[in-house]
Structures are given as C-alpha cells and as structure tokens.
Amino acid sequence: MDANLICGVDEAGRGPLAGPVYAAAVILGPNFNTEGLRDSKKLSESKRYFLAEQIKQNALAWSVGICSAVEIDELNIHRATLLAMQRAIKALSGYTSIKIMVDGLFCPKVDFSCEAIVKGDDKVAEISAASIIAKTERDLKMIEIDKVYPAYQFKKHKGYPTKLHLEMIKSEGLCEYHRKSFSPIKEILAL
C-alpha cells in the first residue's frame, strides 16, 4: 500500500543564531486537499498555523526531528539539518516503502528511495506541508524558549540575526540556546 506514498521533508531554522533546527516529514495521502499549500516563507503567520492544523488533522502521518544548538555546534548546520531530517523520517513508524522527497540539494541517509528537489517546497505539496509543519513547530519552540529567556525577545525574531537580537546578545551575553559556532556570535564574542 505505501509504495505510491510520497513523504515530503523540509527544515526550518538553518539561519538563526539561536534555537534548534527542525525538520518535518509529512505523508499527505491521496485524499488530502492540497489547496493553499506552498513554501511556509510565502505564507502569513496566521495562514501557516491554520494550514499546520489542517495537516496535523488530515494527513496520513507527520512527524518532526530536532537537532539542538549544541548538536549544531558539534556537527555544523548542514550535518545537523540532515540528522534532523533523518530523525523526522524515522519517527514515521509503520511505513516500509514510501518515496522521500526533500527540499534542497541533499538527502539524509535513510532506508528509502530519496530525491532532493531544489525549491521543492513550491513544487511538491508534501514538501510544502513539511515546510509548514517544521516552521510552525520551531516557532512554537522559540516562543517557549522566550518564556525562559525573555530578555532576548525570541518570540519576536525566533532567533534570527535581527538588529534587536544582535543588540540583546551584546548586552546579555549568550544563553544555552545560542549557536556558538555561527560567525555573528563568534564576532561578538571576539570583541
């Protein structure tokens, strides 16, 4: 039965200076209404959350994989992203012969047929869905982290290198969620 099923995979959080990188794996199935699905960056925040709920309720399966800031610093962001993707795919239990389609240039090492598609989050509904899930789940995590470290205002910038975030790092120093291997942080630490 799973032979014709496509599992879309995408990540969120490669560029931030803080927080984990998230990957999502989504199997929509043949009866899913794909209207409105596109790259999460091209959707408003409210539309992303609306679609994320539709995906969670109506997709055949979805999961997320996460790599922490510490893992990102140990592995580098590229390898950490592939590991998060691997974790997301492994979390989909019970599927034996799905086809994996990943946004980008690289496939994680998995026991399935895997194809990397540049701009796949705009071309393949399953990858669009994974983009939406990865982005919304990561944003929710950054809002959670903001409650522990309110001085950084993570809920506003989600860890991305905005002027506000860089100013907060300069005034507050780093917290456990900062990626110490990223050049803007290394530059601040060198001052």
Question: Could you list the spans in which at least 5 consecutive residues all have pLDDT below 50?
Answer: none
**Level of helix content?**
40-55%
* Strand numbers in spatial order across the main sheet: 3-2-1-4-5
| CATH topology assignment | Nucleotidyltransferase, domain 5
Order of helices and strands: EEHEHHEEHHHH
- Helices, by number, come to 7
Averaged pLDDT: 94
Estimated structural class: alpha/beta
Distance between the termini: 58 Å
- Strand percentage lies at 15-25%
**CATH level 1 name:** Alpha Beta
Q: Tell me, briefly, the overall form.
A: globular
CATH architectural grouping = 2-Layer Sandwich
Number of strands: 5
- What's the gyration radius in Å? 17 Å
| Largest sheet composition | 5 strands, mixed
CATH homologous superfamily classification = Ribonuclease H-like superfamily/Ribonuclease H
Structural write-up:
By secondary structure, the chain is an alpha/beta fold. Helices cover 42% and strands 16% of the residues. A hairpin with an 8-residue loop joins strand 1 (6-12) and strand 2 (21-27). Helix 1 crosses helix 4 and helix 2 packs across helix 3. It starts with 5 loop residues before the first strand and ends with a helix. The relative contact order is 0.22. The mean pLDDT is 94.
